[in-house]
Amino acid sequence: MMKYFIAAPFGNYLKYKSYPDVVPVTGTWTMESRGGILKRLWKIGVTLRYNSTYQGWTNKLGLPNPGILVGVKKTALNEILSIGELESGDFKKIVEIVSDDQSLEINLSCPNVEHDKNLSWDDTRLFTTSSKRKYCIVKVSPLITIDELKFLIEEIGFKQIHCCNTLPVREGGLSGKTLRPYVNKLINIIRDNWGDSIEIIAGGGVENIQHVDDYLTLGADHISLGTICFTPWRVKALINKRD
Questions:
Q1: How many other C-beta atoms lie within 10 A of the C-beta of residue 70?
Q2: Do residues 104 and 137 touch, judged by C-beta distance below 8 A?
Q3: Which of 10, 77, 151, 220 is deepest in the core (most CB within 10 A)?
Q4: Which DSSP helix (H) or strand (E) runs through 41?
Q5: For residue 34, how many C-alpha atoms fall within 13 Å in the half-sphere facing its CB?
Q6: Which are the contacts of 128, defined by CB distance < 8 A and separation ≥ 6?
Q7: List of residues 6+ apart from 54 with CB closer than 8 A
Q8: Per-residue pLDDT of the chain (243 residues; tens, 9 = 90+)
Q9: Domain Dihydroorotate dehydrogenase catalytic, which positions (predicted)?
Q10: Domain of 174?
Q11: How far apart are CA 133 and CA 146, in angstroms?
């Protein structure tokens, strides 16, 4: 059954518990605290802008969160915990904290944080080995290459791909309709090279039921809602249109 995923950070707040086909994604959580709700609100106020040139939202939130220890307490087993690595070895620490039946989304592509330049994706295989997780999703950049996808799918073992994260621009990470061509391209690449063996979550610029249908027709299995969550009163109406 097709699911709607409420993209992080919106999944921290928008739960829709009465809808079995809606799955919140909380986070993104990092090993160490990067500030709590007050810092998040400050970052939203300072950096979140609608850019008429790009016709989308830009932000430089930088993953403000109180850390993974708080994240695991705030995330139910029927929700998805989004995690990110900022320093080499963070994933080795996080895997010891997160239960092996907690669904995960590994965020490899946030454009608004400073990472350790020597970070490798190798440690993500620590999470794909558990058969108890309903979801073990990798969230990729709109600029990911086919060789990088091949590594994540064939070497690391990811079976669920979220296409895609925000687009890096000078003003930060760009979300909105600009992402749709990138998502369409990635869906085609995955289907052409790996067929139906990969579960695709498509997200980027989804604002109405036509955008949902377009992604599903192209080959997506599920839909991630982010853009529409900037106007949260519209989310439930969109979800109801597929009931």
A1: 13
A2: yes
A3: 220
A4: helix 37-47
A5: 24
A6: 136, 156, 157, 158
A7: 169, 174, 176, 178
A8: 999 999 999 999 999 999 999 999 999 999 999 876 666 555 555 556 777 887 777 877 678 899 999 999 999 999 999 999 999 999 999 999 999 999 999 999 765 555 555 678 999 999 999 999 999 999 999 999 999 999 999 999 999 999 999 898 888 888 889 999 999 999 999 999 999 999 999 999 999 999 999 999 999 999 999 999 989 999 999 999 876
A9: 49-230
A10: 4-240
A11: 26
Structural domains of the chain, count: 1
Nearest by Cα to 110 from 37, 30, 45 = 30
* Three-state secondary-structure class, residue 138: strand
The bridge status of strand 199-202 relative to strand 160-163 is parallel
CB 39 within 8 A of CB 65: no
Tokens 């809602």 correspond to 225
Amino acid letter, residue 203: G
Distance in angstroms (rounded) separating the CA atoms of residues 210 and 144:
26
Strand partners of residue 225: 6
DSSP per position, 226-237:
-GGGGSGGGHHH
